[in-house]
Amino acid sequence: RLHAVDITSSSFRLMWPKLLSQETGYYTLEYAPIDDLARKRAKQVSGAHTSLMLSNLAPETTYEVALIPESNVHYFPPQTTRVTTLAEEISPAQVLISESGPHSFHVSWAPTLDSVIGYQVLYGPLPGNSAKLLEVDGKHNSTVVENLAPNTTYLVTVTAVYKSGKEKSLSAKACTQEGE
Q1: Ranges for the Fibronectin type-III domain (predicted)?
Q2: 45 vs 52: CA distance, rounded Å
């Protein structure tokens, strides 16, 4: 039976039983969003394959997929399945402030995604416009902000910079403790 594994927001892998061999034919794979079957796309793979990765798909979309074995020996009926991609994960979906002291606090965020190359942490006292910027590698999901004034409220904005160039931001407020 044709089925999908490793489903993400933009891809999935199709698996099927071995029906053909390199010598006896090839497979045509057709797929389209079920609400727009006119946008059908097709791929051909050799008879030696029993799986294929489909990518560049739309998030939260159900695809109608048909596997058509093109055999020069036997007739195999097409196999069909429906696969729904996941919702697109965005980062940061949450920003947490912890370990607050008079001159520093810890900022963390989630989730960390492979599609993010880096984070920008912008922080400044409220009210005011003297914000400072920290750059954080996309593999990390936290940083410590230091050299702050005690007993002050800060606005912290975490911006994820995606490989595609898109940016997503989320803000939180943080208060430093009173000094000695």
Answers
A1: 1-89, 91-179
A2: 8
Q: What is the DSSP letter of 86?
A: P
d(CA 27, CA 20): 8
- List, in order of start, the domains of the chain with CATH numbers: 3-84 (2.60.40.10), 94-176 (2.60.40.10)
The predicted-structure confidence for 82-131, as pLDDT tens digits, reads as follows 999 998 888 899 999 999 999 999 999 999 888 899 999 999 999 887 89
Q: Are 161 and 88 in contact (CB under 8 A)?
A: no
β-strand pairing of 3-5 with 12-15: antiparallel
Among 68, 13, 71, 18, smallest CA distance to 40 is for 68
Say which residue the tokens 């059908």 belong to. 40
| CA gap 29, 156 in Å, rounded | 48
